[in-house]
Each structure stands twice: as structure tokens, then as C-alpha cells.
Amino acid sequence: MDAKVTPLHVPIKDWAPDDKPREKLIRKGTAALSDAELLAILLNNGHKQKSAIALAKEILHTARYNLGELGKLNVRQLKKLRGVGNAKAVTIVAAMELARRKQAGTMLEKQVITGGKEAALFFKPLLADSDHEAFYVLYLNHNCRVLHYRCISNGGISCTIADPRLIFREALETGASRLLLCHNHPSGSLTPSLADIGLTRKLKAAGQLFDIEVIDHIIVSEAGYYSMVEEGTMV
Fold first, then answer.
1. I need a surface site. Which of 14, 35, 170, 192 has the fewest CB within 10 A?
2. Domain 110-231 adopts which CATH fold?
3. 10 Å Cβ neighbour count for 211?
4. Whether this model's pTM surpasses 0.85
5. Does this entry carry the keyword Magnesium (predicted)?
6. 118-143 pLDDT, tens per residue?
7. What residues are paired with 180 via a beta bridge?
8. CA–CA separation, 219 vs 130, rounded Å?
């Protein structure tokens, strides 16, 4: 049975071996599979008369066939689709998070972050798909070598709260001498608010008490990134 004419309502177990996504991946590699086929492997099975491939295509349609948009869907949103329960929704969300961490890990392997562009490349995979604001801190030694990073807080659609005590306690525990701050704007805007600028200056002043330098504050969104150092708003 040719994969191109296999009715999508037919269970995958009844397909010819060469058409089944798992077998196809083993025989031909991941590049031979479509997004729907890869997603179907994660789903494992479909729903009643709907194959896993058909269900995968419905999910991709919901995400406008854009993997970036798929990464923004949460468990509750995915479960609105008939045939997607907790197990399938959690599997998809977990897979997308692993993809984000893999991309961020590529930057972490470089170990040294020297500017806003590199910081944005590190943080954007972690934050760009989020539908709420989150505040991260990158902990560095004096040579800007990465020691650690941590999500300090998750907030609402338009704001998040960063507790200076948590930030500097972590810095002291890790032996960091430099900090790089980052948060996202789900709205897509890259313009810092007065609260963003005020918090940055507050943290910069607090860092001087501990001889810990706040070297930049990055804002990321789908539109790109904003560096307070590059734009002169760190003063």
C-alpha cells in the first residue's frame, strides 16, 4: 500500500511496513519523515477511526503548520482537540521543551558570553515561545564564562517579579562575579518599560555592594532582542 494513498483513517498498524513512521525512520532516517509523521510517533496512536497521522495533521493545522507556534501551545490548549488527552498533550509539550533546551545548550557549550547578541541567542530558545513573562539570570565568572543559569520568576502576560535576594543569593552560592539579566515580552515589543529600567538599575546598584557586576539586561521576543547596554539604558 503506497503511503501517498493510504487513507488517514486507517490505523497505522494496518499500513504497509515501509509506510509506518517508526519503520520509515529506522530504514530511511529522520530527514525522510514529514512533520506530521514525526509528531505521529510521539502521539503513538490516534483516536477511534482517526490514525495518529491524521491526528498529527489536525494538531499542526491548529498551529498553522508552524513548529514555533506548536511550541507555544500548552497542555490545556492541546486537549481541546478531540483525541488528545493528558498523555499526548504532555508528550508534545515535553518534546518541544527538549528542543528549546537543546538549542540553548548549544550556546551553553560555548561557555563564554561576551555580548548582547550571544546572550539573546542563548535565551531566545528558552523564552521566545512563552505566552507569559519570565525572568532569567545568567551567572558568569569574571571572564564571562558561564557558570549557571536560572529562571528566577514566571509572571503574567505583561509582567513578572524578580526578587533581588534570590538573584544575589544564587550568585554568591555559585561564586559568580558577573550577572546577565534577561526577560521576554510575549507581546512582541522590544521596548523596555520604566519598571524594566528601574529594576535593572536597582539590581546594578545592589550588585556593587557585593562586588558583582550586572553587565546587561536583554529583552527577547519574536521580533528579536533588545540590549540595554547597546541601547544606552543601563546608566
1. 14
2. Cytidine Deaminase; domain 2 (3.40.140)
3. 7
4. no
5. no
6. 888 888 877 866 778 899 999 999 99
7. 138, 216
8. 13
The backbone torsions φ and ψ at residue 75, rounded to the nearest 5 degrees and listed phi first, read -60, -45
DSSP per-residue letters across the chain: --TTTS-TTS-GGGS-GGGSHHHHHHHH-GGGS-HHHHHHHHH-S-BTTB-HHHHHHHHHHHTTT-HHHHTT--HHHHTTSTT--HHHHHHHHHHHHHHHHHHHHHHHTT-B--SHHHHHHHHHHHHTT-SS-EEEEEEE-TT-BEEEEEEEEE--SS-----HHHHHHHHHHHT-SEEEEEEE-TTS--PPPHHHHHHHHHHHHHHHHTT-EEEEEEEEETTEEEEHHHHT---
- Number of other residues whose CB lies within 10 A of the CB of residue 22: 14
Cα 144 to Cα 147: distance, rounded to the nearest angstrom: 9
Q: Which residues contact 142 (CB under 8 A, 6 or more apart)?
A: 177, 178
Over the stretch 78-90, which tens digit does the pLDDT of each residue have? 999 999 999 999 9
Distance CA 136, CA 122 (A): 11
| pLDDT higher than 50, residue 3 | no
Question: Poorest-confidence range of 62-66, 170-174, 228-232?
Answer: 62-66
Q: Measured between alpha carbons, how far apart are the two ends of the chain, in Å?
A: 67
CA distance 9 to 54: 7
Q: Which CATH class is domain 12-101?
A: mainly alpha
Q: Where exactly are the structural domains of the chain?
A: 12-101, 110-231
Residue positions counted in the chain: 235
- Check: CB of residue 106 under 8 Å from CB of residue 124: no
